[in-house]
Amino acid sequence: MICPKRPPYPDHSIRINNLRITLNQIDNKIPGFVTGNERILLVDDEEIILDIGQEMLEHAGYNVITANDGEKALNIFDSEGEINLVILDLTLPGISGSAVLEKLLKINPSQKVIIVSGDDFSIHKDGLADKGARKFIQKPYQMQLLLDTVREVLDLKEDS
């Protein structure tokens, strides 16, 4: 079983089993490494995805709050004040990601949401784009794709 050890090491690395990944080494090699400081709610039922996603986003300067199911995500969204972006897995225990998306957008119709999934389908399946999802990322996601997509969605105008 893959299990990251947290908190991160001082050199911004994370350890997954016996593999140590140093994020400082990665971002120095990525042209156009993007950063930000916005608040992101990351929702996924897989602990490894939450841990690594949070580490990637925090390393890029984002303030990340995590939830491992839809109910917790909705509670956090209601109680935490402004959330600039929600990164939402479709397959969650209890309330599905699609249902969470609908509820988030009822609370805040202009909320920016990126859907992530390990399933092989496009953002248009099940009308997710019509429901308000701004982008879709296939899991497992790569650091550069995740950060580029996050920045792209955060930079969208409110009416996009």
Task: Write up what this structure looks like.
The structure is a single chain. Helix 2 links the parallel strand 4 and strand 5. The protein has 160 residues and is an alpha/beta fold. The chain contains 6 helices and 8 strands, in the order βββαβαβαβαβαβα. The N and C termini lie far apart (41 Å). Helix 3 packs parallel to helix 4.
- Share of helical residues: 25-40%
Give the amount of beta strand, in percent. 15-25%
Calculate Rg over CA atoms: 15 Å
CATH architecture: 3-Layer(aba) Sandwich
Structural class: alpha/beta
H/I helix tally: 6
Taken from the alpha-carbon principal axes, the silhouette is globular
Strand order of the largest sheet: 5-4-6-7-8
Say what the CATH topology is.
Rossmann fold
Largest sheet: 5 strands, parallel
* Unreliable stretches covering 5 or more consecutive residues: 1-9, 14-20
